[in-house]
């Protein structure tokens, strides 16, 4: 009875677990890599935290003698801080800052130049004395009205009292050429030591002054410098644009930089409507790479002065809106936080997760390389069970791995794991490892060597890591990069993994920075979040590739085993037609004279095929195999129509010189190779269509031992025993018996790794495997090669014992073995059966003579010949070298007694050094048959 799915699954699972346990190096590597990576990230992170927590980024403090008694007290606050420190200070009452205009630096202010001619700009020489005016361009629908508005932009203020500098600045139109910061807790303009400009229609030479201001308790000094505000009329807003554009800092020394303070378009403004467009230069905002918040715009004062200009136009010079200061809302102290591990994470974590790919691939390719999968199949393992268990096994391994990774990462404190929603992370990793397993199955078809597979897998992992890590983030951040192209890139699983990790890292980074959480399920609807696409891609690829991988695997294992992957599958599709057309021709080619015994065997086969219930264990019905010639070569006829019928309890020996077609024939009989025509029936079951049923009662001992180096002999037998549906006590007994029969039971050999076995021990184990579980048909391909005489005898006994209730088909090069073991022999030469029968018959038929060997001195050679001719007139000399001669004496002509007498007689006449008379051996028969067939 065939083993059920669950029995097979159980066998396979147990074998896998043992294999995993033994494969300690890989297991340790798998566990250690993520640990090392996580620890490394944590170390780097703590270095960075250490740096961030240094005083450079901590709110500035100083020692203040508050009570005036010499003992000082530490006070912290923005007034003691640098710009870097301000972010972390607590600011219960924010400071009030005057509102400033953004003024171009003196050396860049617009002047006349030789390339562009813009009316009204000052001479270039003003740059040397740093006295260039700050230009304001304006235009509008009504020029006279625009002119009068522009004239009101800057007004002379009589010397103001600077001790109340905020209210003074509200009239003085202050400006600065420093860049703005990202908060207004502290204004960089008052810290960088650049002067504060007051914009006036005219500057008197001695109008530069100083003023002091206080931040909390600290008093500071600042220069106040006059700059002339110069409004210039332009005809249209496109003229203004053009001039602004051409004045832009070009980074080219020869071109003039002509910066303008601001520009206004008064549009259709009249005395009832005020419409204005304001140009400002936002390039002035200073945002660093890591900074996600934009710098503040210095645009408020521009709006204030133009509003005042309109008010004055309407109501006279006395009316003004005074804009004294801006200040931010209060804030608590914060700690600058920068989660570096989140940013480095994607690349590292990608490698960690992909580390399983080579592991799985190695495992699968190992079984393919050592033909273990076919071996398992031939002992009854079904494809479905193999897939289900291997898949489930790898999935379990992968899931445990990623869960371990997540838990460890969280425990060690990596924000990447802690901040993002665990269920999202799990779903993402889980779907990905599923896809990864399918990829491994798929990739297995392309490799036939573990080393290559492993190397290519690592190249893929690291290659896509670097390429993805380099390209993807910039493509993702570049909003002009087409989203569809990103999706195309993400079709490569390594990139989709990277993208997913990247999104998680972005969310955990900003979550950490803002003090909130990372990615939540609701974030999936965020249109910038690529996670949803990635999940869809992964699941879709899995759904498509899984059946595809299964199909390819089945096709590859069903057909020719030496086939290499997908290409051959496709090739087979393409060449199928041409083979079938050749089939009809090939019938004619093989018409050859067949020997009577071969013809009789063919008749037996044909006869038993007609019977409904056949007593034959194996029937080969006219098997033919043609390998179609490549590159214009002729087709090769490997097997030319062989018919054999075997009874149960019979051992059949298949002999033949190398290259005679034995292996092709056996491969067709065990269903590894599809015959070009003809068929094989095992126990009445067609091997082509009912392979799985046939395999459950079949045993194979292949020519090359197909064994797992990491398992012991006993484990091998247990595994195959389970596949053959042996359970519990019966299994133990069968295994012990089997080990004993092949002499592997004693001395603990059975529990040693097969990798440590000698060649002979492996052979014996292979034979034991082929016999376990009482198969009805057993194929043995040269079972005794490499065995010492004692082991060989032992093995022969095993086979003799075994053949009693099953059919055994055996190939061998040892004629002795064939004679001892086989009930019938068939000799195949050049693809067709030359003779078939039991050893004695064959010997009688092809032998029929004795061989007389005699060694004398060279002088007496002639006398020996005379003697032999007297004995038997038809004797033939077959061998002759310096005194030693061999003769064939036909049996019907001589009696052994006569030979003895003749030799005795001869000895008395001359000296005979040695002599021998032997019957024909199987070897003689074999050589003769091979020679005859060759001469045809
Ligand atoms: C332009 O504005 C001035 C002052 O308000 C007004 O007197 C004049 O009519 C306006 N011109 C046009 C063409 O609207
Ligand atoms: C400026 O104003 C302060 C008070 O606001 C006053 O004490 C001081 O005398 C004034 N200085 C001048 C020069 O007016
Ligand atoms: C705007 O500001 C940037 C940065 O300082 C400067 O390079 C550029 O020339 C300015 N553009 C104009 C039109 O003034
Ligand atoms: C921007 O600010 C940094 C300090 O935060 C400063 O070093 C840098 O020079 C500024 N960039 C410009 C263009 O002023």
TrEMBL record:
Transmembrane segment boundaries: 30-48, 347-366, 386-414, 426-448, 455-476, 534-552
Membrane topology per record: Multi-pass membrane protein
Main location as per UniProt: membrane
Keyword entries, A-Z: ATP-binding, Membrane, Nucleotide-binding, Transmembrane, Transmembrane helix
SMART domains registered for this protein in UniProt: AAA
A GO molecular function held by the record: lipid transporter activity
Coiled-coil segments on the chain, per record: none
Gene Ontology cellular-component annotations: membrane
InterPro entries per record: AAA+_ATPase, ABC2_TM, ABC_transporter-like_ATP-bd, ABC_transporter-like_CS, ABCA, P-loop_NTPase
Subcellular localization, as worded in the UniProt entry: Membrane
Domain ABC transporter: 618-855
Stated family: Belongs to the ABC transporter superfamily. ABCA family. CPR flippase (TC 3.A.1.211) subfamily.
Record protein name field: ABC transporter A family member 7-like
Organism: Dioscorea cayennensis subsp. rotundata (White Guinea yam)
């Amino acid at each position: 009875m065939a083993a059920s799915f669950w029995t097979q699954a159980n066998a396979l699972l147990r074998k896998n677990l043992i294999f995993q346990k033994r494969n300690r190096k890989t297991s340790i590597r798998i566990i250690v890599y993520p640990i090392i990576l996580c620890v490394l990230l944590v170390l780097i992170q703590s270095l960075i935290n250490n740096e961030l927590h240094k005083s450079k980024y901590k709110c500035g403090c100083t020692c203040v003698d508050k009570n005036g008694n010499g003992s000082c007290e530490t006070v912290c606050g923005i007034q003691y801080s640098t710009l870097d420190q301000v972010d972390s200070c607590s600011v219960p009452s924010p400071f009030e800052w005057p509102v400033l205009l953004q003024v171009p630096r003196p050396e860049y202010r617009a002047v006349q130049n030789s390339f562009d001619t813009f009316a009204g700009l000052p001479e270039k020489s003003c740059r040397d004395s740093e006295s260039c005016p700050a230009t304001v361009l304006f235009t509008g629908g009504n020029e006279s009205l625009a002119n009068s508005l522009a004239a009101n932009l800057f007004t002379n203020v009589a010397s103001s009292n600077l001790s109340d500098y905020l209210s003074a600045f509200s009239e003085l139109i202050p400006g600065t050429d420093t860049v703005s910061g990202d908060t207004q807790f502290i204004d960089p303009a008052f810290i960088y030591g650049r002067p504060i400009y007051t914009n006036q229609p005219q500057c008197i030479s001695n109008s530069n002054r100083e003023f002091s201001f206080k931040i909390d308790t600290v008093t500071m000094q600042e220069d106040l410098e006059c700059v002339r505000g110069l409004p210039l009329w332009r005809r249209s807003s496109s003229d203004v644009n053009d001039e602004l554009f051409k004045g832009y800092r070009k980074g080219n020394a020869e071109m003039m930089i002509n910066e303008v303070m601001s520009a206004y378009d008064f549009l259709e403004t009249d005395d009832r409507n005020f419409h204005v467009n304001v140009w400002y230069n936002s390039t002035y905002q200073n945002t660093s790479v890591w900074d996600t918040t934009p710098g503040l715009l210095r645009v408020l004062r521009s709006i204030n002065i133009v509003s005042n200009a309109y008010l004055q136009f309407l109501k006279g010079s006395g009316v003004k809106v005074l804009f004294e200061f801006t200040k931010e809302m209060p804030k608590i102290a914060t700690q600058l936080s920068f989660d570096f591990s989140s940013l480095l994470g994607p690349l590292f974590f990608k490698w960690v997760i992909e580390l399983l790919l080579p592991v799985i691939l190695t495992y699968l390719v190992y079984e393919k390389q050592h033909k273990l999968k076919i071996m398992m199949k031939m002992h009854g393992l079904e494809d479905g069970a193999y897939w289900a268990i291997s898949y489930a096994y790898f999935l379990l391994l992968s899931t445990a791995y990623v869960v371990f990774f997540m838990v460890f990462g969280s425990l060690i404190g990596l924000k990447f794991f802690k901040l993002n929603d665990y269920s999202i992370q799990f779903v993402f990793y889980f779907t990905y490892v599923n896809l990864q397993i399918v990829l491994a199955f798929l990739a297995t078809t392309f490799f036939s060597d573990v080393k290559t597979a492993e190397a290519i897998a690592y190249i893929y992992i690291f290659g896509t890591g670097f390429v993805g890590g380099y390209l993807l983030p910039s493509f993702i951040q570049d909003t002009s990069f087409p989203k569809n192209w990103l999706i195309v890139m993400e079709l490569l699983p390594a990139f989709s993994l990277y993208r997913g990790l990247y999104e998680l890292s972005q969310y955990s980074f900003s979550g950490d920075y803002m003090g909130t959480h990372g990615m939540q399920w609701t974030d999936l609807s965020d249109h910038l979040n690529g996670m949803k696409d990635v999940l869809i891609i992964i699941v879709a690829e899995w759904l498509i590739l899984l059946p595809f991988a299964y199909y390819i695997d089945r096709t590859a294992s069903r057909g020719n085993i030496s086939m290499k992957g997908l290409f051959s599958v496709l090739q087979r599709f393409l060449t199928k037609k041409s083979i079938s057309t050749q089939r009809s021709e090939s019938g004619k080619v093989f018409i050859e004279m067949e020997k009577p015994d071969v013809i009789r065997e063919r008749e037996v086969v044909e006869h038993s095929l007609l019977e409904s219930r056949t007593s034959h264990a194996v029937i080969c019905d006219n098997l033919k195999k043609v390998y179609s010639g490549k590159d214009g070569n002729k087709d090769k006829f490997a097997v030319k129509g062989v018919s054999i019928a075997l009874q149960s309890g019979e051992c059949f020996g298949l002999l033949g010189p190398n290259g005679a077609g034995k292996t092709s024939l056996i491969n067709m009989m065990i269903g590894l190779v599809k015959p070009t025509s003809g068929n094989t029936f095992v126990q009445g079951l067609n091997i082509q269509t009912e392979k799985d049923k046939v395999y459950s009662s079949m045993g194979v001992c292949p020519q090359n031992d197909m064994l797992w180096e990491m398992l012991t002999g006993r484990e091998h037998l247990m595994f195959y025993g389970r596949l053959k549906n042996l359970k519990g006590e019966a299994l133990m007994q069968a295994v012990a018996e089997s080990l004993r029969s092949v002499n592997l039971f004693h001395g603990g050999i059975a529990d040693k790794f097969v990798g440590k076995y000698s060649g002979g021990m492996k052979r014996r184990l292979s034979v034991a495997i082929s016999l376990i579980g009482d198969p009805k048909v057993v194929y043995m391909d040269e079972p005794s090669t490499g065995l010492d005489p004692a082991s060989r005898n032992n093995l022969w006994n095993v086979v003799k014992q075994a053949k009693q209730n099953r059919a055994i088909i055996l190939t061998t090069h040892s004629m002795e073995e064939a004679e001892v073991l086989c009930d019938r022999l068939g000799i195949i030469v050049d693809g067709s059966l030359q003779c078939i029968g039991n050893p004695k018959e064959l010997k009688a038929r092809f032998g029929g003579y004795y061989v007389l060997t005699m060694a004398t001195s060279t002088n007496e050679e002639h006398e020996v010949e005379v003697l032999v001719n007297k004995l038997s007139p038809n004797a033939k000399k077959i061998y002759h070298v310096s005194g030693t001669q061999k003769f064939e004496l036909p049996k019907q002509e001589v009696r052994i007694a006569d030979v003895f007498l003749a030799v005795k007689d001869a000895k008395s006449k001359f000296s005979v050094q040695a002599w021998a008379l032997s019957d024909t051996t199987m070897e003689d028969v074999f050589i003769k048959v091979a020679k005859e067939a060759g001469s045809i």
